[in-house]
Here is the input.
Amino acid sequence: MEEKDVQQLLHIAGLIYRQRSGELDDTEQETLNNWLAASEQNRQLFRELSGQDLEAITRNEADPTNLQASIERVYLATGIKPGPARIYINKWRTWRWAAAVLLLAVAGAAGLQLAKEKNKPMAAIHTTDVAPGSRKATLKLGNGTTIVLDDAQNGVIASQGKTVIKKSGNGQLVYDASASVATEITYNTITTPNGGEYEVILPDGSHVWLNAASSIRFPAAFTGSTREVEINGEAYLEIVKNAKAPFIVVSGKHSVEVLGTTFNIQSYPKEENITTTLIQGSIRIAAGKYTKVLQPGQQSLVSSNNVNSKIRLATGVNIDEVLAWRNGKFIFDDASLKTVVSQLERWYDVNIDYTGMEDYRFNGEISRNVSLSKVLKMMELTSNIHYKINDRNIYMTK
Here is the structure.
């Protein structure tokens, strides 16, 4: 194996890692697309590589033992028998050769068809593309006035009693209730559309990040013995501790009580369950006559349609996948195509028809800051899902 072959394979590893961070330019994306299109083995390797493997490669810290295990998993999945390339792990112990072998094991087994298939036509038909979502929302004040936040200038945009509402330079909505002595409760509502997200700092200093197609209703100033808000859709919350006034999140007949903690709640109307995932601290879930206290890393599931159903705890929760949206990513860990489609529809504000493909499952990771076609291209090349974009209607086929 010549040094130029090693460098080419290392280059591919770097492209995969950078693609998952949303950093590829169009030329680099085309190179990676051609490599993926060259063989099913390449696509299998793309699915097999973990983010940790790729990050280690880029930092010169790859562990040959771990890379060897990845190769063996690919062999089992694709039926390829270990060939001569495997000896390189024993002959060269540096990360460079280990990384090269990891890629060569499958790409080389398929003949590395990158060059001869460079101009191979793709199955997808591209009529248009769709930009990713962005920071946008509306604010409805207590008197019914609606403010489009993405159009509002930075600085003070409104007041509710003595609570001042400001839009910061980085796009946060900040409620300054430091001088507020509420004589009456005035509720505000922040709503994100499909293709939107927003961050708000509540009157008590708690932070709330809203995902697309979500809303939060809360008082302009917290008074009394509790701090209660209502959330629909999905939100990530970092709650300021106040033992004298527990923070309560209400979603339909489901509620979450916290003192000071970090958690994610998903309660979209079309989803089967209200899902709450605790990151730090402790929370108490209440649904009908049932209650359950969660520990960090646990996730509760409550039926959206049956308020009398028991609170269930999910097993094998992938926290990275739960928080992917908050970290600017899509992460799918053996996710159903229904789950994938729901996220894409909300973030890109599109309609996706995947009739007849309900049994497909998907693994992958990519930035939420790329256009829709790049996400669909990854799905096509890694799962043999073909697609056509027609304005904001997407049609998926086998």
Q: What stands out?
A: Residues 3-20 form the longest helix (18 residues). The chain is about 25% helix and 30% strand. Residues 74-126 have pLDDT under 50 and may be disordered.
